[in-house]
Amino acid sequence: MSNNDIIIIGCGAAGGTAAQFARKTDRKSQITIFEKGKYPQYSKCGLPYAISGKIPKLENLIEFSEEWFKKSNIDLLLETTVEKIDIENKIVIAKKGKAIIEKPYCSLIIATGASPLIPPIKNVFENDKLIENIFTLRTIDDARNIIASIKNGKNATIIGAGLIGLEMADSLSDKGMNVTVVEALPNILQNTLNKDMSKIVLNNIETKVKILTNHIATSIENKSGKVSKVSIKNQETGEEKNIETDLLIISAGLKPNISLAKDAGCNIGKTGHIIVNRKCETSVKNIYAIGDCTEFYDIITKNPVPIGLGSIAVRQGIASGVNAAGGNYELPDGLLQTCTSEFFGMEIASVGPNFIKLPVVSGKYNGMSLPHYFPGGKPISVKVFVEEKTGKIIAAQAVGKNAAKRIDTFACAILGDMNVETLKKLETAYAPPIAPTLDAETLACDIVSLKLSRKR
Amino acid sequence: MSNNDIIIIGCGAAGGTAAQFARKTDRKSQITIFEKGKYPQYSKCGLPYAISGKIPKLENLIEFSEEWFKKSNIDLLLETTVEKIDIENKIVIAKKGKAIIEKPYCSLIIATGASPLIPPIKNVFENDKLIENIFTLRTIDDARNIIASIKNGKNATIIGAGLIGLEMADSLSDKGMNVTVVEALPNILQNTLNKDMSKIVLNNIETKVKILTNHIATSIENKSGKVSKVSIKNQETGEEKNIETDLLIISAGLKPNISLAKDAGCNIGKTGHIIVNRKCETSVKNIYAIGDCTEFYDIITKNPVPIGLGSIAVRQGIASGVNAAGGNYELPDGLLQTCTSEFFGMEIASVGPNFIKLPVVSGKYNGMSLPHYFPGGKPISVKVFVEEKTGKIIAAQAVGKNAAKRIDTFACAILGDMNVETLKKLETAYAPPIAPTLDAETLACDIVSLKLSRKR
Lengths: 456, 456
Fold this sequence. Notes:
The structure is a homodimer. The first copy, chain A, is an alpha/beta fold. Chain A is 25% helix and 30% strand. Chain A has three domains: 6-114 and 255-324, FAD/NAD(P)-binding domain (3-Layer(bba) Sandwich), CATH 3.50.50.60; 118-252, FAD/NAD(P)-binding domain (3-Layer(bba) Sandwich); 356-455, FAD/NAD-linked reductase, C-terminal dimerisation domain (Enolase-like, domain 1), CATH 3.30.390. In chain A, α1 packs parallel to α8. Chain A starts with 5 loop residues before the first strand and ends with a helix.
């Protein structure tokens, strides 16, 4: 054993990135990744697009191949399940087939991810497994099974109108299926957008698929081992009905895979995830944790939030990899939670905490992506949230053309602790075929600024 | 005369905006605009696109009509030339046709703009006017004449490879003309991009039009009152040659229209433009100046720079309009000079001073707009400049997909006085169809950060 052996559990975006940055930081350390799945690092976020066919092959999602890891002198053991972390002897005990592997570490990085949450719907399981045409979407194999199942019928039901649920609605609709999305909450995208902003998205989607908000799925009808109908209930009226279903996708959130970390003594936080600091250290010495199994605090509220985004997982991968290899990398003092997606041709994006308890003033601007005289402009709505007392930018949401890149500017403003009175005067780039002289970004700030001045 | 009569000289983007914001700030003041041209506020930046036909009609460029000004209770006098500002009696003397107008003011806003600069090329003038098929592009009438002239031949020559020169090269090439661009400086876009960045643009453009850098036009051949050939000279080799030309466009910069302001006693700065402060006040009491006739200091270097951008003119219009009407509006403590354009399908953008004399460290990242596994990604190059001593972001340039919106994020970082060590950790919005997990924006920062760490 050398002085700096690093073990990483899990080769998703977080774990794979950690390995790469550990290698960049220390050319000599021995780096081992234990991954229980069959594939090296691949893009989970790309799965819906491989199902629709926009990404031609599932294998294209693999971002770093086994060969790549070999060339980088990183030992990647696939189909290998870690059974225990022995923190006293600093050993990881894993199983590959029938072989038991005992491997010592100096630094350990836990990147065990999360698993799909299955809401209490009657009859979805048979022998502890989801029945044949019910799926979650978390792995390449899930996607492969969904693709195979698309051929067997016209009607798809999706449980959950979050980002993945709507990405799947788009993909399956693209494949010619009749799609119904069932959402328990009153609005779609409730964790990403305010009601008025999500309404813009809803208006666009409703023309293409059926959206049932305030509805829960209560049970399914099992016909020769396959779902044939989903029973749903309107939570307001109590009304129940059945939806003909040839394919059921459950995208109702995630539960973190924390048992190894918990057994090793890592502190678990309020959200049920592993607590880490800005260096991605857990409460146990020499153990780091990253990605979907962890929580970290929001930059504004300082409340813990689960890491649900690949972009954050990658940044934690960088930090933990550098630190485990003897470097020093601190993440910013809280999460921005910048996120984006696109469905049915409409881009959405947001940054900042979802549930803000501070007194907040918001301003929304509905405009166009181009000057009115330039043909081809697309609608863009931007909503910005500032702290009432200070005018500090704390969150923003956008729906429409280049929503994501517009939100990046707000992310920068939040990270830079900027005030709306400053941001409203930002010189944004203007040219007729690209953006108007005054962009929706700063015009939304103007509206907030005006509201604040009236309160003072 | 009421207590707050406002006169504005010039109804371009600056003057027109000033009138609007003066009206918003004070519902009662009398507001008068004297405009020497025939049209109310229109988009000069849109002219190249009206020539190409992307904007179907020249009239579409009019952003606020005469009716609009009337409804807003703003007196707009077109084809009216101001002859003198009498600061002692606070009167503006103007001429409309043969009528002399004497109008008192409480606040005066000078928005007289700039005129095209004609380099010393032999034979371009006849009776003090450019000959028939030689044009500058500054007004709707210029554009109308160019459109008419396109029909008369195949060969166009453009003098100047700045933003407008290249926009026109694109437009005329779009109309089927053979275009040659003659640029005196060693690189195209020398005021906007560094050599390595402008090279990316050049490589794309060179396949479509002929670009001759390091060349000056020395004279033209006048054939029955029309240009038929342009003589050019290679400034390095001294070699001279002639270019067959049916249409010559001169876009070689601007000279500010400052004579009225100068006669009124307003201080003129180092760049030859009217000096203004953050409120757009000149050195003369109650006289503001805005737009292309003014200069203001760069936010980083604090050196004066001419206002050459419509976006800044509009922001000065807001500030001067609010202030002239009794409000209080201060622009940021210096210009960002965020700018963008697009030619031949390629977007470019930049922010920050063009000529930086501080010790600067830069980093460039050439990447793709989408993750490598997602089809349809386009090249994007981002270059960022930081102050060596402090790591402070001072400028950025981008070429490629969404260059403008990427540069807006850097503009925000500069306005927020942010450090590269902070910005490199920005959580940018990620989704496979929209942007990669790590964007070129932060990856360019990583490169600078690494360079800085090696210097320390």
